[in-house]
Amino acid sequence: MVKVLADRLAEAFAELLHKKVRMEIWGYSPDENFFTDEIFHEKYVGIRPAPGYPACPDHRGKEYIFSLLNVNKESGMWLTENLAMFPGASVAGYYFSHPKSKYFNIGRVGIDQARDYAKRLERSIDETEKFIPSNLNYK
Q1: Is residue 139 in some structural domain?
Q2: What pLDDT does 139 receive?
Q3: Any idea what DSSP says for residue 135?
Q4: What are residue 56's DSSP bridge partners?
Q5: C-alpha closest to that of 3 among 87, 80, 92, 93
Q6: Number of helices (H) and strands (E), helices first, in the chain?
Q7: Residue 118 lies in a domain
Q8: Strand partners, 109
Q9: Mean pLDDT, the chain, as a whole number?
Q10: What is the pLDDT averaged over residues 77-93?
Q11: What is the pLDDT of residues 115-129, one digit of tens each?
């Protein structure tokens, strides 16, 4: 029960921080005033996708976030060898503020797309396939 509560609190804080970004920090939506059901239906401007979810299925995005923000030193959080975050009730993601930004699913990719993706990340195709197995259209 404690783990479930901690997970919910982490998600609630992520939602609160996203609201603060929209209204204060970046301030692109300063007069926002939504009811709870409107928040649940994401009526606000912008999105906060996270590595490991359908729009960003590759968990390796967390490595970039952790490196950029020096997360281990600044927060005491870290990534396991399989890129799970520790402690478990942690969140990491990206913020997009463009009014037309929407969540989407990556879907299945062909070998040519997987190879191009691996090349852009400067990683091997074998490693890339390991981190996006359910998105591969050729295995």
Answers
A1: no
A2: 78
A3: G
A4: 53
A5: 87
A6: 6, 2
A7: no
A8: 136
A9: 94
A10: 93
A11: 999 999 999 999 999
Domain that holds residue 84: 2-106
3-state secondary structure of 99: coil
Over the stretch 42-52, which tens digit does the pLDDT of each residue have?
A: 999 999 999 99
Q: In this structure, what CATH number is given to the domain that contains residue 101?
A: 3.10.196.10
Inside any domain, residue 128: no
Count CB-CB contacts under 10 A for residue 134.
9
134 DSSP 8-state letter: G
Q: What is the pLDDT of residue 72?
A: 94
The domain tally of the chain equals 1
CA distances from 34 to 14, 45, 47 (A): 17, 11, 15
Provide the token pair at 20: 């603060």
Phi-psi region of 34 (alpha: psi -120 to 50; beta: other; left: phi over 0): beta
